Amino acid sequence: MITGKAADRTVAVEVAPGGALQELTLEAAALRLEPDELARRILLLTAAASARATASLWHNADGVEALGLPEPGEAAEETIPDSWRAQ
C-alpha cells in the first residue's frame, strides 16, 4: 500500500498497487476547510499516491524486471525479444 499525506497532516489516503483508493483519513481540522479545498486535497493526494503505486508495479524491490519496463539507463529496444523483430 502507498500512503499520501497532506503537509499539514489533515488528510491522508492509502492506495493499493494499481492506484485503487483503499482508505481515506480526515483529521478534525480537515472538516473546517472549504469543501472545494478539501476535495482538491483528497484528489491531489490520491493522484500522487496512485502514480507512486503504479510505478511500484513496474519493478519489484530487488530490481528484477516485473512488467517489462526497462531498467534505468536501458534502451527500450534492448528489451524487445529477437523473435519480435522484423527480419
What features would you describe in this structure?
The chain has 87 residues and is an alpha+beta fold. It has one domain (4-64). Helices cover 28% and strands 17% of the residues. Strands 1-2-3 form a three-stranded antiparallel β-sheet, covered by helices on one side. The longest helix has 24 residues, at 35-58. The chain is elongated and about 60 Å long. It comes from Amycolatopsis pretoriensis. Residues 68-87 are annotated as: Disordered. This is YbaB/EbfC DNA-binding family protein.
Compute the average pLDDT.
Answer: 78
**Helix-and-strand structural type:** alpha+beta
Series of H and E elements: EEEH
Instruction: Sketch the major β-sheet.
Output: 3 strands, antiparallel
| Count of alpha and pi helical runs | 1
For the structure shown, list the relevant keywords.
87 residues; alpha+beta; 28% helix; elongated
Question: Short description, anyone?
Answer:
Residues 68-87 are annotated as: Disordered. With 87 residues, the protein is an alpha+beta fold. It has one helix and three strands.
How are the SSEs ordered, and which strands pair?
Layout: E1 2-5, E2 11-15, E3 21-26, H1 35-58
Antiparallel strand pairs: 1-2, 2-3
